[in-house]
Amino acid sequence: MVQRDDGTGWVDVATIAQPLYQAPGDPTQVGLDRAWVDTNYNQNRSYSYRVIAQNQVGYFGAGGAFKTMTVQSTSPALYVGPQIPIPADPSNLTRRCRPGHRSA
To answer: Are 3 and 11 in contact (CB under 8 A)?
Structure first.
């Protein structure tokens, strides 16, 4: 799950498919990256993003002999702010030398 905070609190904005499932003998799912693009991103606002990974652990067999529970891990927040324009190089600069000093 991906969450975003624009200063008003964390909100769920996306769910990304589980990348860790691997059928026995099938190496195709190992190490696959998952990506998500925030289509509601406003470049004039600041946001923080975080990922919450959830996994269900326990016994899932017939009869439910053992309890299951969901555990989660939360990533550190990633701050994304508005882009600050880089000022142009200064122009119209002059150089003055004090008496008795030489300019290189």
So the answer is: yes
pTM reported for the whole predicted model:
0.58
User: Do the domain assignments include residue 99?
Assistant: no
In-domain check, residue 64: yes
Mean pLDDT in order along the chain per 10 residues (104 residues): 92 79 60 77 89 78 70 90 78 77 59
Please count the structural domains in the chain.
1
Q: What is the DSSP string of 13-67?
A: EE----S----TT-GGGTT-------TT--TTS-EEEEEEEEEEEE--STT--S-
Please report whether residue 101 resides in a domain.
no
